[in-house]
Amino acid sequence: MGEQEKKNRPHVVIVGAGFGGVRVARGLAKADVDITLIDRHNYHLFQPLLYQVATAGLSVDDIAYPVRAIFKEQKNVNFRMAEVTGLDHDSKCVLTNTGRICYDHLVVAVGGATNYFGMEGVETYGFGMKNLDEAVSIRNHVLKMFELASHEPDIDKRRAMLTFVVVGGGPTGVESAGALSELIYHVLDHEYHNLNFKEARIALVEASDKLLASMPQELQEATLETLIRKRVEIRLCVQVTDYDGQRMTLKGGEVIPTHTLIWAAGVRSVPLLDKLGLEQASMRRAVVNEFLQATGKPEVFVIGDAAHFVQDGRPLPMIAPVAIQQAAHVAKSIKGLLKGKAITEQKPFAYKDVGNMATIGRNAAVVHVGSIKIKGFWAWAFWSLVHILRLIDFRNKMVVFMKWMWDYFVYERVVRIITRQ
Amino acid sequence: MGEQEKKNRPHVVIVGAGFGGVRVARGLAKADVDITLIDRHNYHLFQPLLYQVATAGLSVDDIAYPVRAIFKEQKNVNFRMAEVTGLDHDSKCVLTNTGRICYDHLVVAVGGATNYFGMEGVETYGFGMKNLDEAVSIRNHVLKMFELASHEPDIDKRRAMLTFVVVGGGPTGVESAGALSELIYHVLDHEYHNLNFKEARIALVEASDKLLASMPQELQEATLETLIRKRVEIRLCVQVTDYDGQRMTLKGGEVIPTHTLIWAAGVRSVPLLDKLGLEQASMRRAVVNEFLQATGKPEVFVIGDAAHFVQDGRPLPMIAPVAIQQAAHVAKSIKGLLKGKAITEQKPFAYKDVGNMATIGRNAAVVHVGSIKIKGFWAWAFWSLVHILRLIDFRNKMVVFMKWMWDYFVYERVVRIITRQ
Predict the structure, then answer these.
(1) How many CB atoms lie within 10 A of CB B134?
(2) Of A70-74, A148-152, A414-418, B98-102, which range is least confident?
(3) Cβ A329 vs Cβ A309: under 8 Å
């Protein structure tokens, strides 16, 4: 059975089937190795569109794709759906809830999770947006608030139900706030015949004095203006101090009554990484050297959100392009090692910035690539194209493209069922 | 707020947003009434394709459509997402978990549920297939069985994991068994590189001596042959007596080790109907007169699976066409009553048989309409067309059509993610 029948080929174990893990396995398609790819889910998630699931634009199945389908033709990959519980570095084995899986080379690509910075109230009552469960919970919750508000006679209670706060002015926060605005003012608006949509409120709260901090100032301002036009209240230089599910408290004492706090203000590596016996740095990411090897563990590569790789004096950001480039690099390194080329004879990793983009809604996005800055319709068209091309298989591309066209022309979102909670 | 602002127009309350409830509300689009449509879910479910969700052919969102979107343009409909808990017949009010809703005319269209005929083991460990949660549970479970089997070293345990039993030889059972066969032998087959698919087994168990009892014999036999060609083991004249989650016992003592029993062998009205204080008959359906009024309650109409309507000496079957025709009839009756035409002056209801069909898989279906009997590819094409036309909105139609074409030409099913259980 699978990884047991080793035929003496080197065994590469990859933990995590995100952007990084999947690309390492693909990069080793023609290598003379056996690969075991482990994930606790049976699907690969296209995280950049998660916010569209949360705001009822896309189905779960549009952005989640079975891992086995990806590797249908690649016979050297054996998928294992399992929960990793730890590493045994001495015997070089991954410990899982379905048994031990031993490796010659290990790639840790476990990804990131929401960082609440120890704020327990926010963690308990707020919503993160890093995985499918969280995105579906947001969708269910937002739709439920409208259902409750539609027959709530008390205006204050109704206003609290219809107040949606997004915390964090990065791409996830901006995209979520924009998408929420379109869901509420263009779709739900037509369907709740008794509700006064003047009672609805969307606020985007950011601790610093800017949105999309990594963008040029010109695009930051365009983002701000677009969101304001979309009736999103922007609160800059404001910090959240507490939340109890009903009332959000800001530094300085201001209180906003709301049942919905979406927390997009921080990321960290997944908690699993804490159990793997690797040296960790800020955001609890594993420290790696210039070859992406964990400290003191040359047979363990760490990539993506899980890796603390310092370049130009700063750790690389937790974004998909970093994971993708590191994955390609590690696949090459492993192939080099198989050919007897020591890691120190190989090229160290260096990240090439591919630019930045964020969509704010219909016809509105900002794109920054090299010296090119675009905003508005063409940025939106470019953003849509790039994301569709990146989606893994033809069918998902077609379905997503069709849904987007439909939304574009008909202003409708159909993915609005409230599932079991 | 909604149903409170009555303007003295008669208030029609409809419980259930299935085929029946939705069509009553639509039929009253131009009537001078206020309508409150109550359902515990915020979506209308296209039940005939539920088995395709269970077998990973379609997404949840493809067959579930928000009720509010259906009535976006129909301003006299007010939707209320609520759990009905009872009726107060004296004051003519529906009791819900969100308050009382009083009516002048009530339509009970609460639908059907799985009937386990008191077999507790089957109810606890088996899977029904009457609602979205059940269908998603089946999908998750079947896929999980393959994941577990892929690293299970014990052959007997593996065989039990890979044995799938469908009980009930009606359309749901036949369609499920056929779809399971295609999922397993055409899709999963290519993805579990270590599994021997000779160990897999699909059995369809039926207590009588025929499949699709309401079809002409010629089509019954075609169905049987097609299923056998699809490697479904057909067990006729066999009754299930017990199931404990591991072992299914048949009358006579035969035991089949299996972790998956899909129960499609019985329907009844939903348990909610038992709480409504209406006279009930077989399958716990509410007894209605020739005008679809509940016994002794002229202001309460009951339609669809919930109604025990006797025609030609037998109660009408629990199928969508009955609900749809009864809904149209009740909408007309209510319009007549509004014009002062007593119910006894109106035409009694009579069901017109629209024929029968079932699909067994790719290129294979059976259709019986009037004296026309078709099987094979053209029956399958006809079945596909009818179901696509019936799906409520354009977008769903297009997405479903595209997915079917994709499955047809590429033999793939993408809707295979295992969601949280």
Answers:
(1) 19
(2) A414-418
(3) no
- The tokens for B17 are 């947003």
Average pLDDT over residues A288-304: 97
Q: For residues A27 and A327, is the Cβ–Cβ distance under 8 A? A: yes
CATH architecture for residues A120-265+355-410? 3-Layer(bba) Sandwich (3.50)
- Report the chain A residue with the minimal C-alpha distance to residue B153: A1
CB contact under 8 A, A398 and B402: yes
Mean pLDDT of B374-403: 80
- Judged by a CB distance cut-off of 8 A, whether residue B393 touches chain A is yes
Residue contact A417–B61, C-beta within 8 A: yes
| Rounded-to-integer distance, Cα B47 and Cα B321, Å | 12
Q: How far is CA B185 from CA A83, A306, B170, B416, in A?
A: 28, 38, 23, 15
Residues 189-208 in B contacting A (C-alpha not used; CB under 8 Å): 190-194
The whole-number average pLDDT for the span A105-120 is 96
Q: From CA B357, how far away is CA A283, in angstroms rounded? A: 58
A3, A5, A134, A175: which one is catalytic? A175
Give the pLDDT confidence of B18-63 residue by residue, as tens digits. Answer: 999 999 999 999 999 999 999 999 999 999 999 999 998 888 888 8
pLDDT over 50 (residue A1):
no
Nearest to B205 by CA among B155, B258, B245, B246: B258
d(CA B264, CA B128): 7
Task: Sort out which chain B residues have CB atoms less than 8 A from A147's CB and list them.
Answer: 42, 81
Options 3.40.50.300, 3.40.50.720, 1.10.10.10, 3.50.50.60; CATH of A2-40+82-114+268-345: 3.50.50.60
The domain B120-265 is placed in CATH, from the list 3.50.50.100, 3.30.470.20, 3.40.1190.20, 2.40.400.10, at 3.50.50.100
The minimum CA-CA distance between B276 and chain A, rounded to whole Å, is: 23
What are the helix (H) ranges across B339-393? 377-390
- On whether the CB atoms of residues B13 and B101 are closer than 8 A, the answer is yes
- Contact between B130 and B114 under an 8 Å Cβ cutoff? The reply is yes
Q: How confident is the model at residue B421 (pLDDT cuts 50, 70, 90)?
A: very low
* Contact call for A395 and B403, based on CB within 8 A: yes
List every span in chain A annotated with CATH 3.50.50.100.
Answer: 120-265+355-410
How far are the Cα atoms of A106, A179, A263, A342, B59 from residue A51, in angstroms, in the given order? 31, 8, 12, 42, 19
Contact B402 A406 (CB under 8 A): no
Nearest alpha carbon to residue B53 among B138, B127, B123: B138
Contacts of A57 in chain B (CB under 8 A): none
Residues B235-281 pLDDT 10s:
999 999 999 999 999 999 999 999 999 999 999 999 999 999 999 99
B105, B241 Cβ separation under 8 angstroms? no
Give the torsion sign (CA, B163, B165, B171, B172).
Answer: negative
Mean pLDDT over the full length of chain B = 92
Task: Phi first, then psi: give them for residue A243, nearest 5 degrees.
Answer: -155, 135
- How many CB atoms within 10 Å of residue A235? 19
Say whether A147 is catalytic.
no
Question: Where does chain B hold its CATH 3.50.50.100 domain(s)?
Answer: 120-265
Intervals of CATH 3.50.50.60 along chain A: 2-40+82-114+268-345
